[in-house]
């Protein structure tokens, strides 16, 4: 299946401050803040919604195309993605701006001071899907993940114009975009991804009821944290898929991206949505168990055992052979 992922590519610079920010703030001088904190730890992690989802698909044995924008500092990141199986031929490299990044300092009690620099992400609107489709000989699914809002709108319109099936994943950009633009992102999507809060926000900002949303999309997939996932369609009952339980909850960053990668993988293998969601939930749990969105390892036998434990032998028997064959074939190609 020819899958294209559009979305952000980013770097996170995460620091820790051993004290409390509040101890250094003067109440009567809130309009004159000039502070410098000496951090005692720094972690640099790779991320971005588009890159996270593409990497998850690659680790499941696929060869996704990542379409987005990054800066000249992307070279090492690009090489590692390529080594994992992500096709980066359609990542635009900015001549003027660095790769998007989030710089955040967390104090001893969990308060955070952060800054997001979009950088090269603003040039994602200059990435076009038609050349991608021409090189691949067609596109079976485009997943439009959070990115520069203008890029998301352009890629959605390209999909509608050229007949590419697409999945809408507006996620965190729902807070920024207005109702008419959100309606443009959703209209005609084969799959719509939100979490439970975003589900409510989407209806509020578009002015649509849930039934009106469902009349415009194929399936609406809603992630609900520890409560698993629900899948709604305009016809038929809701499908509920429980989460894969774990005691190792290390870092929730990128968990939603992991779910999306797993779900799309199942669709690419021709599985029904319930099975696709089981793959997504299992991959999300792997992501949750490590620091950062890309630090997990995917070992087919362990992954299949997770499916058996959570969903029973039928799930593992259906998914396991597909996963092993895909990973084996991808390894042979690389």
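^ Assign residues to that structure.
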């Amino acid at each position: 299946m020819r899958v294209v992922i559009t979305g952000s590519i980013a770097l996170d610079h995460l620091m820790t401050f051993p004290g409390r920010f509040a101890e250094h703030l003067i109440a009567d001088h809130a309009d004159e803040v000039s502070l410098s904190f000496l951090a005692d730890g720094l972690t640099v992690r790779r991320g971005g919604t588009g890159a996270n989802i593409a990497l998850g698909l690659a680790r499941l044995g696929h060869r996704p195309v990542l379409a987005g924008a990054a800066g000249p500092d992307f070279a090492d990141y690009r090489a590692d993605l390529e080594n994992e199986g992500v096709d980066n031929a359609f990542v635009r490299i900015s001549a003027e701006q660095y790769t998007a990044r989030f710089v955040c300092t967390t104090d001893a009690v969990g308060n955070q001071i952060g800054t997001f620099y979009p950088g090269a992400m603003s040039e994602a609107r200059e990435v076009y899907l038609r050349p991608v489709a021409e090189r691949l000989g067609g596109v079976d699914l485009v997943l439009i993940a959070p990115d520069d809002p203008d890029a998301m709108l352009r890629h959605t319109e390209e999909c509608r114009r050229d007949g590419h099936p697409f999945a809408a994943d507006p996620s965190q950009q729902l807070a920024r975009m207005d109702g008419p633009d959100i309606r443009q992102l959703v209209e005609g999507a084969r799959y719509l991804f939100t979490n439970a809060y975003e589900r409510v926000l989407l209806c509020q900002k578009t002015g649509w009821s849930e039934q009106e949303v469902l009349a415009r999309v194929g399936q609406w997939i809603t992630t609900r944290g520890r409560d698993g996932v629900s899948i709604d369609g305009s016809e038929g009952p809701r499908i509920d898929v429980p989460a894969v339980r774990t005691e190792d909850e290390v870092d929730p960053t990128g968990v939603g991206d992991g779910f999306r990668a797993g779900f799309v993988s199942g669709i690419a293998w021709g599985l029904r949505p319930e099975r696709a969601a089981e793959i997504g939930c299992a991959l999300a749990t792997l992501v949750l168990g490590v620091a950062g969105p890309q630090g997990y390892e995917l070992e087919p036998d362990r992954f299949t055992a997770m499916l058996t434990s959570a969903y029973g032998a039928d799930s593992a028997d259906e998914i396991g052979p597909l996963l092993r064959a895909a990973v084996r074939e991808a390894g042979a190609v690389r």
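The mean pLDDT is 95.
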